[in-house]
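Standup, Tuesday
Yesterday: got the pipeline producing structure tokens again.
Today: sanity-check two examples.
Blockers: none.

Example 1:
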Amino acid sequence: MADSETAAAVRQRHRAENKQLQVTLMSMKKTLASLPKKEKKATQAEMVVMQRDHDARQARELADALARSPDGDVASDSDGPTLSGREAVPAASAKGEDGEDDAAIATSTVNTDADVEATRSPPTPSEKDVTAETATEVSESSTASPAPTGATAPGVDGKKKLTKKEKNQQRLQARARALEEEQAQAREEAKHMPNPRKQEDAGIERQLARLKQSRPALAALRMLPIRPDGHCLFRAMGETLRRVGVVPPASTAATTGPVDPYAPAHLRQLVAEHLRQHPDAFLPYIDAVELPTPSDGADPAAALPASASDADRLLARYCRALIVDAMWGGHVELVALSRILDVRIGVVSDVSYIEIKPEREDGTTVPASVTPTATAPGAATSRIPTVYLTYHMHYYGLGAHYNALILDPEVSSTSDVDTHDNANVDANVDDHGSDNDNDDM
């Protein structure tokens, strides 16, 4: 706030700030219904703090402006907004040494907003006792016997009476102090609220510790953060595969140049092709998926013949959303990638560890190494690699997210291959039949 800003200019600026704050709070309020209970409480507390900070700052600015004003009259600009975009409504102060002057102010101020009392500090019992009749009598007596110009008349007890400017400034400062106290209390309460991300991170660390204990070859396993760009599942898989040397196959889609086999777009194309080739294996799991609205408004099912079944139309829409509209991937895509790449995929969350295992044509699973390195490729004892991801619900504010887990080469053991059967070392591992179907971001 500029030092030369007048009280009227402050009120005008406050009006614009209040409108912007209301837009922000309404936007936050609309998101509350979709948030979990713990996040909803945190958001509500944040909204309270924002409103209190806003009101406290405006109270201080208006108080400073009034202090610079020659008359300090809060209600001099009847059209200008005051605190929180409302008209100034000074409450009648308690009777006593300055009761007469306060009562006169109460009769000369018009309340233009019925809601203003909800934002003011509640009046003291002595304020409630000041009736309209008493205020009128005192106002008339004050008019009949005004104080000498340029002097402050003493009170009935001989003490100095405050001017109108000083009283207004004191009231505004008292409101600012009350708002600051409430703000400090809200911050203190927020310190004791649970942090969902910290709780989830602690749960993932516990699951990783159990995994490393059962599989010593994974002692150097660490998390590789993936950016939340809507492709995190595919980007995490690509980064992991690149490091272990597993090269995804080429797709059947026409290309105009070199293709990065680890790029999210290529992996999405491979998954869509696999779903089209094996619809019966995946249709039961995509039937309940809520698909995003096509970016160009086109319906891919419209190109199908009239005899196409509802399942065919659903699959066409699903594959289109996966390739064109960058739909978030989840358990269905992990199962497809496991089969396409011939790898096991281990997913660590804060409450469980599951493994997605590729199946042969006869329904049996393929033996796998517990590390991201295949053993004896092509031999009868060969084992496919196992790659690892972490699944988060609170890592970012937008929803579910996947990160990669990689073996750190600087601290990796001399032999990162464990030849023990997974079934013997990890009795708590679930297969891909788990119902963990959360989508990624």
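Example 2:
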Amino acid sequence: MAKKKKNKESKPENEAASSPAKWLVPLLVAVAAGVFVTLLLGPKETVIAAGSGNWSYKVVQKFRHDPGAYTQGLLVHNGVLYESTGLRGQSSLRRVDLMSGIVQQHLDLDKRYFGEGLHFHRGVLIQLTWQAGEALVYNNETFAHLRTLRYEGQGWGLTGDGNQMVMSDGSDVLRFRNSSDFSVVREVKVTENGKKVDNLNELEWIEGRIWANVYGTNDIVMIEPEDGRVVGRLKLNGLLQREDRNGREDVLNGIAYDRATKAIYVTGKRYSYLYQIEVTEPKPRG
């Protein structure tokens, strides 16, 4: 249900505008009081507003992306793009040449799987599945299936910082998992200005923070891993320009970070392009 907008209160006209004597004395008193307070307390400090702010972005360049790929997971490792795609009977694991968008290696998942988030961890690729409760572990060079890790609930997004892994399930909860047996070590609830943020989808760990697509929107939230606070929000409205559309696009989904070059890439389900973006943190409001 849409919230009703409150009508702005109109200020009454100043009936004394034609009589300077009635407003001049109060004005002088107010100015004097202000000077006294300033002298007493010192100059006003710039106050940074609590909670998150909206970051801005610009597209640096765009690369071809398979418009048939229902993107669920995305990552860059050693300059190579890896992608997990979804839908039953269409799910896959892919190695993609980033510059050309050409799929260099492709593995179809069993038809019972709906591919989800993807993470590179210590020489292996770990691919989540939506409702099967299984994370599939592969050799990152050959895509040979090495083992299966099991978990409860749904699998959506997966990322990590090289030591710990964190997983989303479409709710407001992020679960940190043991890298050996995938057991839950701890969990945090994600909030923004005290309100929960759910529908957390694809994840990427960028410079000490967890970035998450918010399913069904063009937003990415930046999360502090220790307490789940959202400290930034990136709205990617306008990313998909008219000339980039193919008519089959679904939601924005997919964040990849190249730790070597600091480049950030985003795309969406059935998007025709992968976008490299630069982001700018909002200026403090004072």
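Quick observation on example 2: Residues 1-51 have pLDDT under 50 and may be disordered. The domain at 54-280 is CATH 2.120.10.30 (Neuraminidase).
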